[in-house]
Design a protein that fits this description.
single chain; alpha+beta; DNA polymerase, domain 1; Aspartate Aminotransferase, domain 1; globular
Amino acid sequence: MSTSFESIPGVTISARKALSTAGFKDLESLAGTNYEEVAGLPGIGARTLERLQAALVEKRMSFGGEVPEAEQRTATWTTLDSAAPETTETLESPEHFIQNLDSPRRITHGQLLLEIFNRATGQEPYVAGSSIVGYGRVHYRYATGREGITIRVGFSPRKAKISLYGLTSAPASQELLKKLGKHSAGVSCLYINKPEDVDLEVLEEMIRISWEAEPGEC
């Protein structure tokens, strides 16, 4: 199940209408979208942008481009058993999801990433939201009381760029990023144009160390 804009506190009816008119059907569809593009929509103010970005970050996603620094919030992260309920998990298999992408190029990229993530984590993947292949589950709780469940690591073979989640904050990840190849970074995710642009052995190592790190580190 995807994350509706209605479920995000403080996102007004006018803001939801503007997002829908612009083609954004849920929170996950905003991941990787340039911040300035969304900021230019009518009815989308600074507070709404901050709330949307905070909701994205909680799900290991982010706007693309230059995102203004928001007030820092700390959270407690706890690894969940694989059988724990996942509010955004769907019944569709990752293999079926990837096979039904809209172009041979995206299918090939999705299959390659599925193989790499499967090998690096040793876990069974699942489809979260409308377009994310996730591995593992973590529960987060902020001091404000906001809490939820999200993926531990994962990827999304989106049309514009491929999004890679949960790989940027483990202690060793910054050194590996220097060796990764062509990419851009959001608050808690990486974006690549295609797998051929990066060193796949480095990517697999980043996935492995992020999976093995404590939840609060990734």
